[in-house]
Amino acid sequence: MKSLTRRGILSLLLLLLTLPCVFAAETAETTEEWSFGIIPDTQWNPRTPPYYGVAVHVIDAVNKEMIRQKVDFVIQVGDLADSPSEIAYQTRSASNQPLEEAGIRYYPVRGNHDSTLPAVGWIKHFFPDLPGTENGGGSSPDLPGAQGLTYSFTHKGGKFLLLDTFLSDNGTPEGIDYTIRDLQPWIDRELQADDHRFAMVFSHKNLLGQGHKDNVFTYDRSNQDDPEDVQNAFYASLHDNGVKYYISGHDHMYHRSTIKSPDGKSEVTQIIAGSASHKFYVPAQPLMSRETSHIKDLNRIGFIIVRVTGEGFEAKYYSAEPFGSRPAEPEWEVRDTFGYEFER
Question: How far apart are CA 207 and CA 200, in angstroms?
Fold first, then answer.
């Protein structure tokens, strides 16, 4: 065996010194754990002080649990207030102060109760620097007025798309409803990008509702559905790009189901995220043939926390009995668990 030269010895020592760093980096990539939260609709009745149409006491209770579980950020799937007004969105924004003090970011998407043109201005004022805006990073579709309403952001290997399909300010007095057809080219680009390990898609309206008959493919003002080819393209975009979950609000119940596209070629798991509101709905129609129901949780206050590791993620849905108009310390129960392992 040849003896090592001085250069060879130095190279070997350098390699041995760097190996712990390499192993540490690999370990961090596979074992680092982080989490984020999902809160459903937070409208409240009455619209008078101190609520102004916002479920401030429910939000306070949910925020405490988000902080206790040390989530990195919270996504809300629409209906920030019962009726759009300046004081309502100011109140909803102020409710996030405990999250801000804990370093937890808040990412909202609008619902049908936030769907007016004035609401666009108030939301952008009280929730500035959202992704897609000049100072918010992230991405928004290249559509007039969509910036900061429909947007995506990345975080620790995850990508999150929030889709707004309601009235936007495109510079005309009437505004415009951007539909899934309008958003699809941007959705495709975002999901096909190589800047994430997994992706999730959020919007207010459901793929197939339980208590509501309208859905994310329904034009908000004309009550007309996008044709099946548009729906098939959306399902295929999620399915082909490895998106396992589409998470929505609107129905004020928790429901997890698997839904196939109209052509039967693609499928995605739909999570209707529950209620953080005074409203609770029950299923109003039988399941369509292309939907398979897995679990329901009705007439309870709820939220979701997703915990992510390098191996995959596990989401838990928590809920509690409603507690009316009084502040409370709910007894949260885990009522559903879902998730998957990342592909190697």
Answer: 14
